[in-house]
UniProtKB/TrEMBL annotation:
A Gene Ontology term for the protein's cellular component: cytoplasm
Naturally occurring in which organism (per UniProt): Lamprobacter modestohalophilus
Cofactor(s) of this protein: Mg(2+)
InterPro entries named among the record's database cross-references: Folylpolyglutamate_synth (IPR001645), Mur-like_cat_sf (IPR036565), Mur_ligase_C (IPR004101), Mur_ligase_C_dom_sf (IPR036615)
Keyword Nucleotide-binding belongs to the record: yes
Record protein name field: Dihydrofolate synthase/folylpolyglutamate synthase
Amino acid sequence: MRFQTLADWLAWQETLHPSRIDLRLERISAVWQRLHPELSPGRLPCAVITVGGTNGKGSCVAYLEAWYRAAGYRCGAYTSPHLLQYNERVRLDGEMATDAELCAAFARIDQVRDGAALTYFEFGTLAALDLFVRAGVEIALLEVGLGGRLDAVNMIDADVALVASIGFDHTAWLGDTLDLIAFEKAGIFRAGRPAVIGQRDAPARLRERAEEIGALPMQLGQELDWTAEAGQWRWCGPNDLQYGALPAPALRGRRQYDNAAAALCALAQLSDRLPVNLAAIRQGLLRVKLNGRFSVLPGRPTWILDVAHNDQAALTLAENLASYPCAGRRLAVLSLLADKDASAVIAPLAPLIDAWHLGQSASERAMALEDLTAALAKSEATARHVAHADLDQALAAAAAEAGPEDLILVVGSFVTVEAALRSSIIATV
């Protein structure tokens, strides 16, 4: 084995490929075939649901994982990025893969890659798939890392593909129009298989592309929908399938009903192969967890952590924040990555925030404090803002300013939320 620790493996993977992102499938597909020659190209020995989209994909995976686990199926989930430790990306029956399991998978990949310069994400994708095959999972849930058409997980043909939403993000890679982004996201659809769209106003190009390739589009507001009913909700899907008296999702916000409805449609498409009863669906809705998406921490003042880093996510966050009870002020700790549109994140939140604390994370990809400050100054935000030397100081300053009735929102990226979770200032989730 090349390395003995997970940290050493990951550090090496960061340097192996000259580019952090390399959107091609030929290289990783060839390595996968050498790693598991017994499998047909593009197939796993289990059912596969691939989930993509700009926002909401993590929530959809979380719902599916909760439902399949409640029903007793052996479930593998691959997501990214992680918050606190790399192991979060690969879960078997709800448990993170161990360091030993990941190191062994990386060693097997290294032995067969035949000199291929795999990226960090490609190594992780291969490791997750390898562990799923060896564990004999009955369902694999694969979250797209970036885009869809050329993302590493798309070397596997999904039995059901779900695109949660389309918005502006990663435009340097995916294109600068919603139609171009939709085309890339639609790359996970397959001919003759369900293509679930979890957005009522999704760009028309997304559904058009599904129809062009012969996939079976099922879109929120058309083939599937949900309605509120007496403190609960009802889901209606293709072929007149319905589930009623469903409890509110444990994940907060109205948008989570859309995500749950889309995920439920994906679940229903595999019901002949992997049936899940209504009791398991209800249990999963009550138990589903996803850190960093409007995560409310116990105690006073109230801390809310959200990884929102684009306009669509910020709009959803603003809706949730506006409806969340707060007797005092709302303070925000904001830190973004350099490739994000700070103005788009700030705009929907600005009317709700009484004071901003800005910080620059330790990430090499962090937005410079001067750029973040300039974006806030140019916005319509009228609340006081203070720039701090780093993110830790911003968190400490917000905590020192807040009274027991106040609320502190930590927002901007996975890196930002990670810093909060690691901070000694607040309790971890």
